[in-house]
Design a protein that fits this description.
two-stranded parallel ribbon; 2 strands; alpha+beta; 2 helices
Amino acid sequence: NEGWISFTFTDENYRGKSINKLLRKYVENLLIKMGAKNISSYIHKDNISSLNSSRKAGSTVEYYKTTKKLL
Protein backbone atom coordinates (compact mmCIF):
# COMPACT_ATOMS: atom_id res chain seq x y z
CA ASN A 1 0.00 0.00 0.00
CA GLU A 2 1.15 3.49 -0.79
CA GLY A 3 -0.17 6.90 0.14
CA TRP A 4 0.19 10.00 -1.99
CA ILE A 5 0.46 13.71 -1.33
CA SER A 6 -0.75 15.24 -4.57
CA PHE A 7 -0.37 18.99 -4.27
CA THR A 8 0.19 21.21 -1.27
CA PHE A 9 0.46 24.94 -0.87
CA THR A 10 1.30 27.10 2.10
CA ASP A 11 0.21 30.74 2.01
CA GLU A 12 3.29 32.92 1.93
CA ASN A 13 2.22 34.57 5.21
CA TYR A 14 2.57 31.20 6.96
CA ARG A 15 5.71 29.82 5.31
CA GLY A 16 8.66 29.02 7.54
CA LYS A 17 6.41 28.13 10.48
CA SER A 18 6.70 24.32 10.08
CA ILE A 19 3.07 23.97 8.94
CA ASN A 20 4.02 21.63 6.09
CA LYS A 21 6.05 19.53 8.52
CA LEU A 22 3.09 19.22 10.91
CA LEU A 23 0.66 18.32 8.14
CA ARG A 24 3.03 15.79 6.62
CA LYS A 25 3.52 14.08 9.99
CA TYR A 26 -0.25 13.96 10.50
CA VAL A 27 -0.77 12.38 7.07
CA GLU A 28 2.08 9.91 7.64
CA ASN A 29 0.55 8.74 10.94
CA LEU A 30 -2.86 8.42 9.30
CA LEU A 31 -1.42 6.36 6.44
CA ILE A 32 0.47 4.10 8.85
CA LYS A 33 -2.82 3.38 10.64
CA MET A 34 -4.34 2.55 7.24
CA GLY A 35 -1.54 0.07 6.50
CA ALA A 36 0.48 2.10 4.00
CA LYS A 37 4.13 1.18 3.62
CA ASN A 38 5.22 4.26 1.65
CA ILE A 39 4.24 7.85 1.04
CA SER A 40 5.03 9.55 -2.26
CA SER A 41 4.49 12.93 -3.86
CA TYR A 42 5.04 14.80 -7.09
CA ILE A 43 7.17 17.94 -6.83
CA HIS A 44 7.76 20.37 -9.67
CA LYS A 45 11.42 20.55 -10.70
CA ASP A 46 11.56 24.27 -9.90
CA ASN A 47 10.04 23.92 -6.42
CA ILE A 48 13.32 23.74 -4.54
CA SER A 49 11.69 24.65 -1.22
CA SER A 50 9.27 21.71 -1.42
CA LEU A 51 12.02 19.36 -2.57
CA ASN A 52 14.23 20.37 0.36
CA SER A 53 11.32 20.00 2.78
CA SER A 54 10.59 16.53 1.45
CA ARG A 55 14.22 15.51 1.80
CA LYS A 56 14.30 16.81 5.39
CA ALA A 57 11.29 14.58 6.08
CA GLY A 58 13.30 11.55 4.90
CA SER A 59 12.08 11.23 1.31
CA THR A 60 14.41 10.40 -1.56
CA VAL A 61 14.07 11.08 -5.28
CA GLU A 62 13.19 7.88 -7.14
CA TYR A 63 12.13 9.05 -10.60
CA TYR A 64 12.47 11.88 -13.05
CA LYS A 65 9.57 12.51 -15.41
CA THR A 66 10.43 13.75 -18.87
CA THR A 67 8.02 15.46 -21.25
CA LYS A 68 8.29 16.26 -24.95
CA LYS A 69 5.73 18.58 -26.52
CA LEU A 70 4.50 17.14 -29.79
CA LEU A 71 2.44 20.05 -31.07
